[in-house]
Amino acid sequence: xxxxxxxxxxDVDGHPAxxxxxxxxxxxxxxxxxxxxxxxxxxxxxxxxxxxxxxTIRMIAAEANANTALVHRYFGSKADLFAEVLSGESVLRxxxxxxxxxxxxxxxxxxxxxxxxxxxxxxxxxLDRSAGHPEVKQSLLRYLEDAIVEPMVAQLDGxxxxxxxxxxxxxxxxxxxxxxxFGLNDLxxxxxxxxxxxxxxxxxxxxxx
Length: 209
Description:
The protein has 209 residues and is mainly alpha-helical.
């Protein structure tokens, strides 16, 4: 179907410039997607820094250069937005999904990479700072179950696979208070290969039948 032409601003020759009306919905869609992404990014950063209870919709909107009405329109409540942020975290899913043979080593390398590069993932910060809040308890449990525990269980043979997966998850995701109080400098000062080897042994023991 031929695009509808409407009169717009003058073009370089002084004639009315043609505006493709069919392009305007696509442009609006791109604007909506960009705004939605800004809101998600802002929420991830703020939830990770302050925890669920320390963040308001107004703070997220200001960080995203949006208004609160848009935040509610795109995501609903603050709890719904928190759940959406969690659902987009896929790094650990990729680490776990590589197959059972190298799983302990992959988990160890993931952990050691965070130590070496002084980077705690956004989901680790979210879990660390928001785990005790009742409004998001179910979202956190669902994320841990769907993204970490069940994918590990699916790769384990032998008895008590869920208990073994939970033990490995505790090593992987735990330690928030210790990390905040002591930092990770002592771990960084050691040999990174030795750290990875030790972590591999820990994950191997946790996941073993």
